[in-house]
Amino acid sequence: xxxxxxxxxxxxxxxxxxxxxxxxxxxxxxxxxxxxxxxxxxxxxxxxxxxxxxxxxxxxxxxxxxxxxxxxxxxxxxxxxxxxxxxxxxxxxxxxxxxxxxxxxxxxxxxxxxxxxxxxxxxxxxxxxxxxxxxxxxxxxxxxxxxxxxxxxxxxxxxxxxxxxxxxxxxxxxxxxxxxxxxxxxxxxxxxxxxxxxxxxxxxxxxxxxxxxxxxxxxxxxxxxxxxxxxxxxxxxxxxxxxxxxxxxxxxxxxxxxxxxxxxxxxxxxxxxxxxxxxxxxxxxxxxxxxxxxxxxxxxxxxxxxxxxxxxxxxxxxxxxxxxxxxxxxxxxxxxxxxxxxxxxxxxxxxxxxxxxxxxxxxxxx
Length: 366
Hints:
By secondary structure, the chain is α/β, with parallel strands linked by helices.
């Protein structure tokens, strides 16, 4: 890899497992910005970049929904960077008139102030009736009464010219108070994020265009001891601005089988898993399809100390016993994302990581 060229890197911080960095309202954005500067091409998912009323638009960051990242890592999808998407907005018919109007005003504000290409906007035929829950492990999860209204509304938007879709759904107000209080104080799991992931996964699987989700909630009482990582969610009446900004420059999703069947598509500028220089993931959450896909292909993996409730680590995968890491794997350990950025730069520059550590082991004959 020429150091002057981008070094595509995948940053994964799974949603709904309460990671110290990335488990809250866009609190991983500073880390993502740093890693984007180190790689010049960072691929990551919406929950890393979504800060509700806050956002950061960086042309070096590719905003890719989690299901799409899994398919990308498995070699089924390629990414085509885009400077502008036409973002359709899918609104749950279960939103009350005032909350619906607030979101329409957000759309108008993003059009007028940020110059985003937004529309069409549509309502589902019936309310989606979402419920939230937690798994036995404590990870957040959720359900929809029926997927048909969601999928039909998504189909209408795509037929009317939308090239990406922002989804706004009404979440229940009866989220467990203890869980919400813990989250607002920086000690818990985002109780909505698991269900949000289900909604966006289903739409991307069905439509193969970029999608991301923004929950709609009634306002909550002010919390004087609010954790700074949660503050972005409580600045306004909506989570939608960051989603619209992220989707406005999300890359196109190009299926590999479609690419093979046509010679008409312009193949230039596509990002494939074969180009990936490194993947970065929390040490507690290595069991996802994207991480496993990267390991299978021998892509260097930077494992970062970023605790959450998941326990799928290197030992669980059989890649480490005690302090010994499987020598056949390109696995590097970082205490935080600052160290991860240093490791990433070393990989990009072709500097042997072992030469940076002390002591340096002597060469021995085998």
